[in-house]
Design a protein that fits this description.
By secondary structure, this protein is mainly beta. Helix content is 3%, strand content 64%. The strands form five sheets. The protein has a 34-stranded mixed sheet that branches. Strands 9-10-15-16-14 form a five-stranded mixed sheet, with no helix packed on it. Strands 1, 2, 5 and 8 form a four-stranded mixed sheet that branches. It is globular and about 105 Å long. It starts with a helix and ends with a strand.
Length: 872
Amino acid sequence: MNKIAILILLLQPFCVLGQSTIKGKLFHNKKEVSGICVLAHPAGNKNALLAFAISQLDGSFQLQLKTSLDSLCITTSSVNYADTSLFICNKNQTINLDLKSEIHDLKEVLVKADPIFRKKDTIVYNVGSFAKANDRSIGDVINKLPGFEVERNGSISYQGKKIEKYYIEGLDLLEGRYGIANRNLSHKAVRTVEVLENHQPIKLLDTLVFSDKTSINIRLKKKLSVAGKAKLGIGAKPLLWDANLTPMFFNKKQQAIVSYQSNNIGDDIAEQLLPHYFSEMKNEPKEELLGIIALSPPAIAKNRYLDNNIHLLTYNHILKLNQDASLKINTSYVNDYQQQQGAIQNNYYLPADTISTYEVTKNNLSLNRFNSDLIYTNNSKQRYIKDKLSWSKHWDKSRGNVQNENSAIQQFAKTPFNALNNHLKWILPINRNLVTIKSDVSYNKTPQSLDIKPGVFQETLNGSENYDDVQQHITLQNFTSKNSLSFTLNKKSWSFDNEIGIEYQNKQLLSFMEINNKKKEENQFRNNLRWKYFSSYFTENFRYETPNLNISLEIPIRQVNYKINDHALQKTEALSKIILNPGFYLNYKISGYFTSDVSASYINTFGSSTDIHYGYLMSNYRSLSIRDIPIEERENCSYSTQIKYTNPISCWFASIHFNQTYTTQNILLDQSITPDGSSKISASLQDNNSQRSLLFFKGSKLFSEFGTTIFFNARYQYTQSSLLSNAVLTKVKNDFYLLEPRLSISKFTWMSFDYKYQYSQNQQHISGSISKFINNNHLFNLDIFPVSGHSIGLELEYYSSKSDYSNNKTNFANIKYTWKPKHTKMIFELKCYNLFDDKRITSYYSNSIASIENSYRIRPRQIMISLDFPLQ
């Protein structure tokens, strides 16, 4: 992979082209002329456009050129004046052109909107040029736009990177949870999708701080718009339903999306509420230390296998208080009951042996989750204030039954969660300089319990005697506070950021175990762990910014202090250290179409409180551990480079990305596997080195004349790490390949067609054993429109999974009939899912010590009839 890295860096096109600026004025009879196209071409080739401009009210124009040509041809073009050409040398200069009157007769033409065009840093997609007759939501259309990729969970990426903001008419209503709009806003209500390249969402920083992030803006057809979706469907077998009522309201002063949705057809509507932003104001996550062992889902569409019964209610409203300030509320509640059924074959590759286990699993998951955010924002050229208050409460439970070769095991887990968070960011300008205040405060608590019958780990927990029941109880509390003050000094193209800050975290872990409903009093089966973390830091950031080149060098110095103690077990651990985490970033605009990024970083991080516990902790029925180890220290050295090509004129979009990461840790885990597949985890103070190499390409091209878009993704990843397995040091290597071409055709009024092929291969080396897993998937979608208002759709999916031991194939088919009566908005649909009534799908994957064959029950054949009514 080092050769690949060197090759990518050598190909980095930082060649310096000849740069020149041509200025001038246009006259007619000694009067300035405005609105005239001024074009620059190579001499002798008017078909190759190098640059263009439009003359201003005073007749002036300016052309910026990047070319190594010695001579140029400057041409004017207008309806009312004769075309005028002038041959000049390629150098900085000022020219004046005198135009002659000449009226051009225009032939009758048919004007058709371009599917994609650019306005400065904005690329505009005309939705009507990409929408097909069978598309319903704006998300259906975005998934077909060249340059875009929509993942199965609804996350949107552009040119290989996740979008930063999802605006609707310039307002960020959903704060990253844009799936609710993407899936329920009809594409017929949308005029264009605007891609905002190098978008800086904070207006005060717009001309001061460069951003390489991309956002999108949904531009509606009407400024005052009522939109949304209403749907009701029923089916069998068993009794099925699918209900959706999602009204939306948009105007200049406020926006609102309210939704109630419910189904039991495998549609995981909770994904519409997933946050997709990489936000500074991110809440502290829930830490689940206990739980049943869930089945790993297959790599197919979730509605093929998800056995659910879900209800979702959400209210989202933004109110503009004035031109710059707004108040926003985002509230949601989800109640979901899921069932999983399948079987797992585990093959553990140990230095002296291979252990295999086989289990049949049935799980029931009950998820109840409430989340609410109240956000005030003032985003103007004079100031920026954003305050976000969040409250989350979860009541999650799960139950599992496992049948293995020796016994039947019952599991029951409760993992409730309660959290309160507040995030503040305030930026004040002082002349062209800035002062930024940030404050984040959070508190959360999660009491968790796990009950397993019959008892496990008899040797450790019950003197090698069988017993009926073991329960693990924990309570984890966390208080975190992060505060900082920064100063930004700007001088021409240079900016200097100075930030000072402090961080404080106080965590407490309480745990105990019960055997046959009797608490184990020995200290080794309890934890009363107090974790305290304090850090102060100073960061210096140097930035150099020009229209084509942006360089950033960050040098943060941080003092970290950790103190951990468990008084009952008389254990104490402390760490105090000064660390340096430098980072470098360069963005270079090679031309109007090519952009290049280079970044490098060296980062020191430390383990979390859940990595250490001096008493036993049983996280599931297969894992019992004591982690009496020092605080884990990690050093990450990473560098990456990217080349991006964006050409909206020819509708070509492509990017290639390479990343190399080296990691050194001071802790090496030892996972001891017993003959029944259960494990005990310990750790030792020993250097542990790993590396990861990643190379991927994403490309897409629209052929307008053929109504066809092609997509192509390719990926290669190599990882290498070490682990202790039954006290023997083992090297683990993985090679992963992915090829994914896709074709979308909408040329014909009577038919549309989509096809995707996925090939992936994973090869794992453990202890001299080599395992190879190959997947071949074909996804085919055909819609035929025989007469107006009627359509027939066919979806075919073929999945092939191959390992060293077996080869499994699965076929899926859906067929649907859609009818839209004339002069109505209603759409009737009759659909049969899983036409071949396949029962199971088998997939293969691996982790650091094992290869796993996973057999998962999928949804049976079912028939649905539904009525869909767009609210517009």
